[in-house]
Amino acid sequence: MSKGIILLAAGGTGGHVFPAEALAYELKARGYSVHLVTDSRAERFAGKFPADEIHVVPSATIGSKNPVAVARSLWTLWTGMRAAKKLIQRLKPAVVVGFGGYPTVPPLLAATRLGVPSMIHEQNAVMGRANKALAQRVQAIAGGFLAENGGAYSEKTVTTGNPVRPAIIEAAKVPYKPSHAGEPFNLVVFGGSQGAQYFSKTMPTAISLLDDDLRSRLRITQQVRPEDMEMVSGCVARLEMGADIAPFFTDMAERLANAHLVICRSGASTVSEISVIGRPAVLVPYPHALDHDQAANAAALAATGGAKVIAQSELSSEKIASILTHVMNDPEKLARMAAAAKQAGKPDAANLLAGMVEAIAAGRTIAEFKGIQS
């Protein structure tokens, strides 16, 4: 028999849905029924999400300065909130949990107006607009990188970390093994579509600038956009080096586990996965990220000593070549970075997050929950 219903609300992108998915599996294992409320974009995740039912509620973002567009968005939000209110009254969830993105606004507003226990999870070190609008109204805030001290809502914030995929938890069991002189050096390079484009332009030249003895050691895994495949593959062929070039890797967790160094963007999930596995990284925040959240995520890991952060504006092929030359000749430094990254990782995030949900459902305060955890 189900312990009750937990309603999860998430925006329709992977960054919002995947942490919600990890929590859903944990809650199901604890005996709860899980429902997901989202927008139509998330339907592509419907087959994988372990929800008893997925509900689509109207929502909109207010990003335009056009009065007509703003009025239309407000009307859509009002319609969505009414629909969410009816849904919550029918389901009677024990807790409503939001994971960011504008589709979370109607169900969380409806929940708080109905007096249903509610909380939000913020993946990034900087709170997104939807979560920021809801933060004052909810009972608790779980954070991937949010600080428990000194923030605007620190009294009800718990730094749970970001739940990661089972494959990442498995990869975390692989210890870091430094690459010494003459041994293969596994370099993993990836980013979102924009990140992949930038690295496609800079990495081949950087590799060509390395001394022959270092270049011969490199084994590269690089995510490349389909339209850049021919260019990058041609460069790799001319350099006569070992490389796996593809738009997508289904075994990325395993490749990260075998990496001696990672060069990538610093989205919340990426930084969380690198730290859970414990691999040294050069993080290049996407410069056009909303609220500069990637820079804040990167800074959080860099503060532990697990990563080096370089702004894209300060990075070049020559700079990358210099970094690779330095670290490939200093395996002990990379080993220290790997240990620091792993120390910062939170592999128990899904379990801790589920504990928060149960505490809120039982009527406990976050102060009481923190006391239990300590």
TrEMBL record:
<dbReference type="GO" id="GO:0008360">
    <property type="term" value="P:regulation of cell shape"/>
</dbReference>
<feature type="domain" description="Rhodanese">
    <location>
        <begin position="335"/>
        <end position="368"/>
    </location>
</feature>
<comment type="function">
    <text>Cell wall formation. Catalyzes the transfer of a GlcNAc subunit on undecaprenyl-pyrophosphoryl-MurNAc-pentapeptide (lipid intermediate I) to form undecaprenyl-pyrophosphoryl-MurNAc-(pentapeptide)GlcNAc (lipid intermediate II).</text>
</comment>
<dbReference type="GO" id="GO:0050511">
    <property type="term" value="F:undecaprenyldiphospho-muramoylpentapeptide beta-N-acetylglucosaminyltransferase activity"/>
</dbReference>
<dbReference type="GO" id="GO:0005886">
    <property type="term" value="C:plasma membrane"/>
</dbReference>
<dbReference type="GO" id="GO:0051301">
    <property type="term" value="P:cell division"/>
</dbReference>
<feature type="binding site">
    <location>
        <position position="294"/>
    </location>
    <ligand>
        <name>UDP-N-acetyl-alpha-D-glucosamine</name>
    </ligand>
</feature>
<dbReference type="InterPro" id="IPR004276">
    <property type="entry name" value="GlycoTrans_28_N"/>
</dbReference>
<keyword id="KW-0472">Membrane</keyword>
<feature type="binding site">
    <location>
        <position position="165"/>
    </location>
    <ligand>
        <name>UDP-N-acetyl-alpha-D-glucosamine</name>
    </ligand>
</feature>
<feature type="binding site">
    <location>
        <position position="124"/>
    </location>
    <ligand>
        <name>UDP-N-acetyl-alpha-D-glucosamine</name>
    </ligand>
</feature>
<dbReference type="GO" id="GO:0005975">
    <property type="term" value="P:carbohydrate metabolic process"/>
</dbReference>
<dbReference type="GO" id="GO:0071555">
    <property type="term" value="P:cell wall organization"/>
</dbReference>
<dbReference type="InterPro" id="IPR007235">
    <property type="entry name" value="Glyco_trans_28_C"/>
</dbReference>
<dbReference type="Pfam" id="PF04101">
    <property type="entry name" value="Glyco_tran_28_C"/>
</dbReference>
<keyword id="KW-0132">Cell division</keyword>
<dbReference type="Pfam" id="PF03033">
    <property type="entry name" value="Glyco_transf_28"/>
</dbReference>
<comment type="pathway">
    <text>Cell wall biogenesis; peptidoglycan biosynthesis.</text>
</comment>
<feature type="binding site">
    <location>
        <position position="193"/>
    </location>
    <ligand>
        <name>UDP-N-acetyl-alpha-D-glucosamine</name>
    </ligand>
</feature>
<feature type="binding site">
    <location>
        <begin position="13"/>
        <end position="15"/>
    </location>
    <ligand>
        <name>UDP-N-acetyl-alpha-D-glucosamine</name>
    </ligand>
</feature>
<keyword id="KW-1003">Cell membrane</keyword>
<keyword id="KW-0808">Transferase</keyword>
<dbReference type="InterPro" id="IPR001763">
    <property type="entry name" value="Rhodanese-like_dom"/>
</dbReference>
<keyword id="KW-0133">Cell shape</keyword>
<keyword id="KW-0961">Cell wall biogenesis/degradation</keyword>
<protein>
    <recommendedName>
        <fullName>UDP-N-acetylglucosamine--N-acetylmuramyl-(pentapeptide) pyrophosphoryl-undecaprenol N-acetylglucosamine transferase</fullName>
        <ecNumber>2.4.1.227</ecNumber>
    </recommendedName>
</protein>
<dbReference type="GO" id="GO:0009252">
    <property type="term" value="P:peptidoglycan biosynthetic process"/>
</dbReference>
<keyword id="KW-0573">Peptidoglycan synthesis</keyword>
<keyword id="KW-0131">Cell cycle</keyword>
<dbReference type="GO" id="GO:0051991">
    <property type="term" value="F:UDP-N-acetyl-D-glucosamine:N-acetylmuramoyl-L-alanyl-D-glutamyl-meso-2,6-diaminopimelyl-D-alanyl-D-alanine-diphosphoundecaprenol 4-beta-N-acetylglucosaminlytransferase activity"/>
</dbReference>
<keyword id="KW-0328">Glycosyltransferase</keyword>
<dbReference type="InterPro" id="IPR006009">
    <property type="entry name" value="GlcNAc_MurG"/>
</dbReference>
<comment type="similarity">
    <text>Belongs to the glycosyltransferase 28 family. MurG subfamily.</text>
</comment>
